[in-house]
Amino acid sequence: MKIRFGTLCALALLANSFLTPSFSEKDRSGQEPLLRNGDRVAIVGGGLIERARLNGYLETALTVGAGPKVTGLKFRNLGWSGDTVFNDARSYFGKPQEGRERLRKIIGEWKPTVVLLNYGSEVALSYGRAWTDEPIARERCSGPWKESLGVFTEGFQKMVDAIRKEAGTELRKIVILTPPPLENLGVPLPDHRETNRRLAEVCSSLKGLAQKNHLEFADLFGAMKELETEPLTHDGLHFTDMGYRQLAGALSSVLGYGPPRNNFDDDPSVQEIRKAVIEKNRLFFHRWRPANETYLYLFRKHEQGNNAKEIPQFDPLIEQSEMEIERARSEFFKGSQG
Amino acid sequence: MKNKVSHFLLVALLSSYAHGQRGLTKIPDTSIQAQLDAFVLPEGAKINLFASEPVVRNPIHMNWDSQGRLWVVGSPLYPHIKPGQEENDQVVVLEDTDGDGVADESVVFADNLHIPTGVLPGDGGVYVANSNDVLFLADTNDDGKADHREVVLSGFGTEDTHHIVHTFRWGPEGMMWLNQSIYIHTHLDTPYGIRRLLGGGMWHYRPETRRSEVFMKGLVNPWGHVFDKWGQSFMTDGAGGQGINFVYPRAVFVASPGAPRRVQGLNPGQPKLCGLEVLSGTHIPEHWRGALASPDFRGHRIKTYRLSDKGSAFESREYKELLASKHGAFRPIDVKMGPDGAIYVADLYNPIIQHGEVDFRDPRRDHKHGRIWRISFPENPPAPFTKPAEMNSKALAEALLFSEENIVRELATAELRTRDADKMLSALNSLELKDDLHIVRRVWATQALNRLDIGLAKQLTKSKSHNARAAGLRAIYYDASNQKYKNVLSIAEEAVSDPSPHVRLWGVSLLAQLNDPQTVAIALRALEGVEVDDFLDFAVWSICREHRDRWVNEMKTKGENPFDSLSQLLFASSAIGEPLGADQILDSLAKGKIREDKKVWEVANWIANKGTPAHLQKLLDLALQTASVSQRHAYLNAMLTAKKIRKINPLGSLEAVRQFMQSENDTVWSTAVELAGLWKLESARANLEVTLKQTDSRRVRKYAAINSLIAMGGEQTRKFFDEQIQNPQVSYPLKSALIKGQLKIQPQLAARRAVHLMRSIPKGQEPNALFSAFIANKGALQALTKELQNSKLPEDVALKGMQLAESAPTRPQALIRALQASGGLKPMKMSLSRDEMIAMIDRVNTKGNAIRGESVYRRENLQCVACHAIGEVGGVIGPNLVSIGASAPVDYLIESLLEPSKKIKEGYHTNLIILNNGDSYAGGILSETDSEVVVRDLTGKRNRVAKRDIASQTISPVSLMPVGLTSQLREDEFVDLVRFMVELGKEGEFKTSSRRFARKWEVLPAGSPNPGTIHHYGAGMFTQEFSGYEWKPFFAMVGGGIPVDEVPVALKRRSDEYQVLRTHVEVAKAGKHKVRLKGDSSNMDLFLEGEPIEIPSGRRETELAIDCKKTGKQQLMLVLQGPQSDGQVALEALSEDLNMLNSF
Asked: Which residues of A fall within a CB distance of 8 Å from B909?
């Protein structure tokens, strides 16, 4: 087992390079900016999104990227490792439908104005095996690739419909973020060339889906593909800290904000924002996905359900950390303008 | 109104929790000395404190690194983070630098963790379980603290924090092994696609390839996993009760959600065990070596077990206790051999364990203390230890291949992974291998470098030793699915016909990894030519299902049996539950090619579950043809199941079934009659009515006739029933049975008749069955409630109804109110006020007598024994109470007796199923398929329920334990009963010992009929096979003894009284075996398989050599004649090769 500390350090030196990538902004050119004052942004996806909560790069990039005039942005990281467009991973003791309900519930409660959706790599990777347990899709998704892809698009459509329904009239935009390509890191890690070929097909299906539903389409797959740098992932799939920084830049670009205006890591006030984002994410995780749900809300709540009263006590703490993010953000813009 | 009273009491009790209950129970003395004073150790052993708080707090898991340092994770945060609380649980590293057995250096490696439940040093850092994630932490600047943090795996569920990912261990093959438990639902995004594990089970993960796979599924809370010297895996279960579990690929164990079939553990009836280690090395006395040690954390002790080969798996026998303690907060939860050869024990230190039944914030929960204990044997020198981290390549290779200390090889394996692979391979290759074990270890070493020597692994599969052959197959197993190696199929093919069933098991496991179309055909051969046990049977069954498409598609295209024989086709088709090849198989039944009863039942059940109406017709024909009663029953029963579960009938005329109404056999008759009813054969009606009218008809026939007529329905049934119910000549039990039928078709009328009947119940009769029937059906329940609003019931009758209603899973509040009004009852007092609870605890502590309490516990009318086991013997409906006293606070025990529903042990929740016709079934789900659910109810009965009949299925918040069971006790009896429970599992008389007593007996009821006269036959008469003997189960007391006055007097002749008991033993080897018989020998006779055994007279305790001529299950009978001075007798096996059969 070789940990790439050396590589990491080398990457740190390259950090500047990701600030000036040549992303095209064509997808959003001529359009009004994605984010507005007070937007509530939900990011929904699988493990890529879930892990992003731990380093805060994606949210920080958008918080800063939206510019000095856009204040009061709030983000909820609703990523869930191993999730699918049927929301398998979000169910506990039930079928995937229960997972869908969990997503609907949070969307219905929080009423996001912007939703970013990131799914697809799990399908390309799971070719030949069942990737969802959803009864209507289980058989088909383990079949031929076209069939599996079809199941994915259908599921995606249903998820979009469900989100639209729950979010109601305040929902302004749904953005499809395509999955970034998988990296080939060589033996003994898996060869992802075939998977990337399939992933490209996933992305073009997603593009069709976006057009059909009048959704925003943000092509991370294309943007990240153009970057041919040192390894950004541990295993081809999971991003390293450095990888997430690159991804944050790419996200910022494909959403029309270009690369971050300042160096993420060298600027202490950006660091402040990111630190506060991480803390907010930590608190929100305990609020939204608390441990011990079996006792708090599920079939053993008659025994220890009284402890559930503590869970909403995270709300004021989350609010506080959001004020901290806002404070750090205004500090940053004050600094950069002054 | 009255409901509110009890509600108020409940609220009062709950709020007392919030205000703290420090006064309620004694918090044990937290000093180190108090714990030291409380230990009980085996001969020659010494215990010392290795580390404690504040360095180590609430330790959960520990592992050594290749520098001989102990890494420990603990969690004061457990069970749940508070809002505003930091995530500050720690990983600490402990080191004993001067070899005195005490940690003298400690470093906090990381202090920002959230309930870390696993720790495994290796790969230049440490892997840590951190709730949802597995982290890799490393110290890159050599300051002893982690500065690199990386998420390695994410997506583990956290639905219950004592189930989250845990039990990390390096396998000998260099993979990381990790477990999760029952409530956890895990979804991993991996670079090989999504991997999911819902419920308990075990994963393996290879860091180099980042590949994670599920190895086995199930077990409730498996916190123990070890590899034996050949690399086989064994697990323990912290919430199950089957001792050591032998696990293998794709095996599915208890509590795996939705599993249609499960494999059992090796020691049913054992306490819950947390952690597992193989005792090994030169420091410990020889007799301990090779034993498996596992903490019974509830019972404050460490138990051990010995394994031996048996069939495709192993036999595990309880061995001596390694450690026990009288200290109530000693919670051993992990045990590991240390580099010095001593045994290290992680003591969570907590008077309260877990948080399902005890409040998260209970103030008695400890968040401060924690201890690591070290057990050594001062007469023996410490084991030699060189730090593998400091070994050169050659020394490391030698340690890997030749060290006899397990811990050295384990640490060397972790070290090996950090070295240059080529150098290590050449060092390994330079050493001469002397036996199979060395070859196995070299194979593992290459695999730990992720450079498996496939040639050598293949060579292993041809070894002389079956253990080595199995190890070779297992080495190839992991990567076989990647099609990485050539000619694996032929290796697997050879293995499935190996003389050793164990090797066959691995052959089948290997096949399951392969892509070949022939895998199932090959795997089925494993069932031929050896005795097939459940482990091997399961493995073959499993591959038939997993690779279904391969052989089914072949069969469908070719239209013929793809296997060598029909019995293979039957096995495979039954496994997937599809009627493939049913025509061929039914033909061979008709031609008499399948004769064995067991096979016939198997075929019949399979057709019942999956056959078409045409297949059922063939069963009806077969039932008419066969001369065997058992087989006829099998066919009829199959048609009945098909009707009930799948609502289908045989294709042709059904009238033929009436022929069986001439049968002499009650079972055949009853099954035929039930079919006639469901098929609505009016032609049978007259016969049924006659059966009910004739007073001499047997009871079973009458009940069958009632069910049949109800199923048939119609005006005629309604009229006939009501006439019979109103007929004064009809007996109470029959009327009660008729009303139970009537309530399904005319609920309101039935309610009126029932209330009328219950107003004057004859002496010696009970209303319970009638009440239960009404409560179990929604419509009938409403009818009875309505009826009671206008009528009175005698108080005692209403009270019985109340008790049943209070513990009904549907919680029929309206009925409870109606019963209260109708019987003039006060609401049942079910809870104690805080002061009452304090007073009660005080009485239990000062006045309670556990010996008297045990006899209260054993009373038949309390039904404790019928539902709960203590150790190996007793019922299986409720939790095993073997160590309840050691694990649960007194207030919890009192509360559970008074209010069974308040805290329900995991796995004992009642599933409530309500059918479209209003019938309800409550109990545990035993298995589930697409078409049916099998529910085990309170009486232990298995009920098969058709899924299409189900209106709703929920988890009921009501315990299966009836309310008010203890209401019949005097207070002093209640106090004694609680005291007995308090003592269960604690050090002392009420801890189930590892001595091998006969605990499961059968007795003859009082006044049993006899096949002859006693003066003619002597006591040997009872050994005869005689249909008049109705043997009843009887369990020994916790201490192993049989209380003589509880044994019924089977025969009384003048002044002579005979009490007759029998039990069974398993003889492993023929020959003379020693047993110990306690009791006055002059007043007893002992028989082995009907042959008298000579007992010297005048003894109070006798050691006997009994001559067992053959192996296998044999019967021992004890006949008592005259008084016993101790009031007790006992029988104990002393020889290794003789085992008491206490569980079946």
From this structure: 299-300
- Residue A252's CB is within 10 A of a number of other CB atoms, namely 24
- The least confident of A24-38, A239-253, B570-584, B662-676 is A24-38
Q: What is the pLDDT of residue B22?
A: 34
CA A38, distance to chain mean position in Å, is 19
| pLDDT surpasses 50 at A2 | no
Residue-wise pLDDT for B1049-1067, tens only, equals: 999 888 889 999 999 998 8
Q: How far apart are CA B792 and CA B801, in angstroms?
A: 13
What's the rounded Cα separation, in Å, for the pair B671 and B693? 20
Measured in angstroms, the CA of B1074 and the nearest CA of chain A are apart by 50
Rounded to whole angstroms, how far apart are CA atoms B951 and B676?
26
> Searching chain B, which residue's CA lies closest to the CA of residue A99?
B185
Q: How confident is the model at residue B608 (pLDDT cuts 50, 70, 90)?
A: very high
Minimum Cα–Cα distance from A89: chain B residue: B187
Among A1, A131, A190, select the one facing B191 at the smallest CB separation: A190
pLDDT category, B861, cuts 50, 70, 90?
Answer: confident
For the beta sheet containing B942-946, the strands, ordered from the edge strand earlier in sequence to the opposite edge, are B942-946, B932-936, B920-928, B910-915, B950-956
Mean pLDDT of B184-210: 97
Q: How many CA atoms lie within 13 A of B296 on its CB side?
A: 38
- Rounded to the nearest 10 degrees, what angle do helices B406-416 and B436-448 cross at? 30
Asked whether the beta carbons of B820 and B4 are under 8 A apart, the reply is no
Neighbours of B1020 (CB within 10 A): 15
Taking CA–CA distances from A5, the nearest residue in chain B reads B140
Contact A50 B115 (CB under 8 A): no
Which amino acid, residue A326? Answer: E
Q: Beta partners for B71? A: B63, B93
Q: Which domains does chain B have, with CATH numbers?
A: 47-376 (2.120.10.30), 577-652 (no CATH), 834-983 (2.30.30.100), 996-1140 (2.60.120)
CA angle B32, B36, B40 (to 5 degrees): 155
Segment A286-301, tens digit of pLDDT: 999 999 998 898 888 8
Cα–Cα distance measured from residue B714 to residue B719, given in angstroms and rounded to the nearest whole number: 9
Round to whole Å and give the CA distance between B1053 and B397. 77
- Flag whether pLDDT at B828 surpasses 70: no
Backbone φ/ψ region at B592: left (φ over 0), alpha (ψ -120 to 50), beta:
left
The answer on pLDDT for B179 being more than 50 is yes
**Across-strand partners of B121?**
B126
Lowest mean pLDDT among A308-317, B2-11, B677-686: B2-11
Q: Which residues of B touch A1 (CB under 8 A)?
A: 122-124, 207-208, 417-418
Residue B1139: pLDDT band with limits 50, 70, 90: confident
> Higher model confidence: residue B834 or residue B416?
B416
Residue-wise pLDDT for B960-1005, tens only, equals 777 777 777 888 889 999 999 999 988 888 888 888 899 999 999 8
Q: Is the distance from CB of B235 to CB of B228 less than 8 angstroms?
A: no
Cis peptide before B384 (omega within 30 of 0): no
From the list B1064, B1099, B1061, B1057, the residue with the least C-alpha distance to B1078 is B1099
Do the beta carbons of residue B71 and residue B65 sit within 8 Å?
yes
Neighbouring-strand partners of residue B1101: B1078
Q: How far apart are CA B918 and CA B378, in angstroms?
A: 69
Q: What is the DSSP string of B853-913?
A: HHHHHT-GGG-HHHH-EETTEE-SSS---TTHHHHS-HHHHHHHHH-TTSS--TT-PEEEE
Closest CA to B1120 of B1112, B1131, B1111, B1136: B1131
